Amino acid sequence: MAKRILFVTAHFPPNDAIGTQRMTKLMKYLHRRGWQVFVLTLREDYFPNARGDYRVYLPDSVRVYRTGKLDPFEIWDWLKRRLGRTGRAEAPAPGRSSSKSEHSSKSGSGWWFELKELVTRILQYPDRYNGWIPFIFWKAWRIIRNHRIDYVLVSSPPHSPHLPINWLHRWLRFTYIADFRDPWARSQWVRERDHLYQRLQHRLDDVFEGQTVREADLLIYNTDHLREDFEQFYGTAQLASRAFTLTNGFDPEMKVLLGNGRMREEEAAAGRQFIIRHTGNLYKKRNPEPILQALAEVKARYPEAGRRVRLEFIGPLDEALHYLHGLVESLGLEKQVAFLPSRPYLEILNQLHQADWLLLLQPGTTIQVPAKFFDYLLSGRPIWAVVEPESVGERLVREMGNGFVSYSSRPETLRAFFQQLIAGRLKPSRPRSEALERFSAQHLAEQLEEILLASNGQKSEKRASQ
User: Fold this and answer.
1) Domain residue spans in the chain?
2) Which of 59, 13, 20, 54 is nearest to 36 (CA)?
3) pTM of the model
4) Per-residue DSSP letter, 430
5) Are 352 and 250 spatial neighbours (Cβ–Cβ below 8 Å)?
6) From CA 434, how far away is CA 329, in angstroms rounded?
7) Are 422 and 302 in contact (CB under 8 A)?
């Protein structure tokens, strides 16, 4: 009899966030291996500007259930009006850093600021999907009971879906898999604990992450670094028998949908621009400003050669980074730098395929690697990694053997990339085939199946002993 698995995730088409790719790839290849796949996700109208279509990725036999959710921000907007808060802070002026603007907007903050921020954090805790929690509880209950679901996989972030499945797992019989794509309570990007609302959020994160770790039968992490972080915090003995690494990956079948990508060093040598592309969101913690400064310095030293570099950032630009438009102009990089809107997933893949280099930007953390890295592998293009020393991003790029590593905190390593690029000393190459195979979606789905079947549908030792 085919095994039945329910995926509970907000990352499902038409949501075109990068997390959607992990989910649909696992669903697709588990289904091919004979699994009955069920999906609990949000209604399509919550993603009005998204373009993802699950019918492109998945067969019709995958059962998809959609629900609504409450919106805590509508409540907060009403409360802000009642409290006299009429609007958001203005975006930083062009040429000014977002950090300075943010600091100035919070200067003089006292008990009133603390109160407003505390209310905001409560209304959106653990994230802005908390209004989905009651809908998940009741719908998942019915799906699990009616279809005799064997396995329930909850992928986060967002972390809200873990809470109702934690509760359901105490009453219904299924194997619960908590899939962590990013950290929760110990994010290296969120360290501040100066204010009451920050301390409260960290405390609640500790509580609910711990509850999820104890309740889940299987724990899956998308990097070894992330798994080791959890093992170090909770104890290897507690997690060793049920903690596994399952990386993100690429779908090799998408390769046939791409254009004719090719190595283009001959054209570059003849004077064509080197096109370096980055896809996905840019925000305060993923800020390309040091890269722009490095390019400007190289261009000032080598004016003609510097003009042959073009940086394209495809995807949303957070409001806090709107000042980058003015910075680009002040640095004289209008013809070298472009911020472009998001495109549908297949168009993005083709854009990657036609670039000379692909930018992997992950400062501030050593245990995470953006999921776009695996789409970069599919394209076969060389990767410029701007990461932290000894990070998982650095390790992966070096293993693939087709990239250049710079450190976000060391400007000289950023300049070195541009200097070697325009001097013709960086020769594009494709990823090592032996290293590439382990990231194919078929291989990852096979790994996941082995993990699930090894659990034999049993409850955790704690549950079995009760």
Assistant:
1) 4-69+129-249+441-464, 72-123, 252-439
2) 59
3) 0.83
4) P
5) no
6) 44
7) yes
Answer for the pair 368, 182: CB distance below 8 angstroms, yes or no: yes
252-439 and 4-69+129-249+441-464 share a CATH fold: yes
What single-letter DSSP state applies at residue 287? -
- For the cut 80, the answer to whether the pLDDT of residue 224 exceeds it is yes
Q: Which residue has the tokens 């395929």?
A: 353
What beta strand segments (E) does 309-416 contain?
309-314, 337-340, 357-362, 383-387, 403-407
Would you state the pLDDT for residue 97? 40
pLDDT computed for residue 107 by the predictor: 41
Burial class (CB in 10 A: 0-12, 13-18, 19+), 315: middle
What's the helix, strand, coil split of the chain in %, to 5? 45, 15, 40
Q: What is the token pair recorded at 364?
A: 């501030």
Gap between the Cα atoms of 174 and 190, Å rounded: 33
Please name the amino acid found at residue 350.
Answer: N
Assess contact for 171 and 137: CB atoms under 8 A. Answer: no
> What is the secondary structure of 118-138 as a DSSP string?
HHHHHHTSS-TTGGGHHHHHH
Tell me, rounded to whole angstroms, the distance of Cα 32 from its chain centroid: 26
Helices (H), 183-261: 196-215, 224-234, 236-239
Diameter of the chain by CA atoms? 73
pLDDT in tens, 363-414: 999 989 999 999 999 998 999 999 999 999 999 999 998 899 999 899 999 9
- In the CATH scheme, what is the homologous superfamily, with its name and number, of domain 252-439? Glycogen Phosphorylase B; (3.40.50.2000)
Side chain identity at residue 228, one-letter code:
E
Going edge to edge, which strands form the sheet with 243-245? Answer: 63-67, 36-42, 4-8, 151-156, 175-180, 218-221, 243-245
The residue assigned the tokens 């962590």 is 180
Please, is 74 exposed, middle or buried when counting C-beta atoms within 10 Å of its C-beta (0-12, 13-18, 19+)? exposed
- Cis before residue 428, ω within 30 degrees of 0? no
The DSSP bridge partners found for residue 313 are 278, 339
Encode pLDDT of 31-41 as tens digits. 999 999 999 99
Residues contacting 377, CB < 8 A, separation 6+: 250, 400, 431, 436, 439
The residue with tokens 């890295």 is 373
Helix ranges (H only) for 302-369 are 303-306, 323-330, 345-353
Tell the CATH topology of 4-69+129-249+441-464.
Rossmann fold (3.40.50)
Structure tokens at 347: 């168009």
- Centre a 10 Å sphere on the Cβ of residue 155 and count the other Cβ atoms it contains: 24
